[in-house]
Amino acid sequence: MLEEKWPVLGRHERAAEWLRIWTDLGRARRTIDAYARGLSEYLEMCERVGVEPLTASRAHVAAYVRELTNRPSRRGSNVVSIDSGAGLANATLQQRLVPVRLFYDFLIEEGVRSANPVGRGWYTPGRRFGGHQRGLVPRLHKLPWIPSEQQWLDVLAVARAEPVRNRVMLALAYDAALRREELCSLRADDLDPAHRTVRIRAETTKNRMERVVPYSAATGVLLSEYLAHRATLSRARGPLFLSESRRNRAQPLTLWTWSKVIRRIAVTAKVPQFSTHSTRHLCLTDLARMGWELHAIATFAGHRSTESTMRYIHLSGRDLVDKLATGMEHIHSWHVAMLAENTAAEASQRQATGA
What we know:
This protein is mainly alpha-helical.
């Protein structure tokens, strides 16, 4: 129950009702949790200052924003960017305001309020005056960080000492430009080793759009080794990546465990900016550098087309395999080949010993 995790929701009937509606509509659990967390923080602020949330004004919401921007960073000394030492990042501020804005939209629809104190920014093309209104918090559009060639080499050098599971996960994350949840949610039957493709199921994606993407031959070598190792843990054709800890042995690997693995590799490699999403950004940048057409990259990444709004642009997995084999031979495969070197060396050693 959401009220058990965030007790403040139990004290505000309308807020709990709104979240139950979203839950009944089948929204993803992580989305519901994010909405519950953001709205709970706002409701707690209202209680501290003695404001009734149902009648709060824009000034009260602005006070909430000021509180978020001045909040001490939970990272403490573990700061990874210049603006991360205090307050919340711009993207996090936007995330915190989304549930508050949607909650007030709900109150307007229910006839409880006549206006939304959060408001939305808007722009009307062609109108020089009166055609633009800023949102409550200006939205910053930053380019994603990607590692340099040397930083990527440093990460790979550290990753080569990792168990085969971690190496194949890192290779797949780059090869197929996978998000963290897409990677950790892979099942054994999502793989097609004969064509070196992997199916990303719609329910695991950010925008619920299924796609088929290829992986390189080097990653295929790692996958073969990992599948043989996985059979010693479980022969069930369930989740592909399994935990090997004593407490959760043979259980599905969690998002948080994978994040800890990547964080450990990044710190050891002295590339603290490197995260579970960096491989995706690097892969898509490499595709663009090699001259892939925009619609092909969008399909590969599972992006929604900004040009046609609700349209999705599709390419078959086979077409993407051909492009990978011809256009990315010197860059894409090289970036993960180092991860498979240990496997090839170990195989040669076993053959020599057997001889």
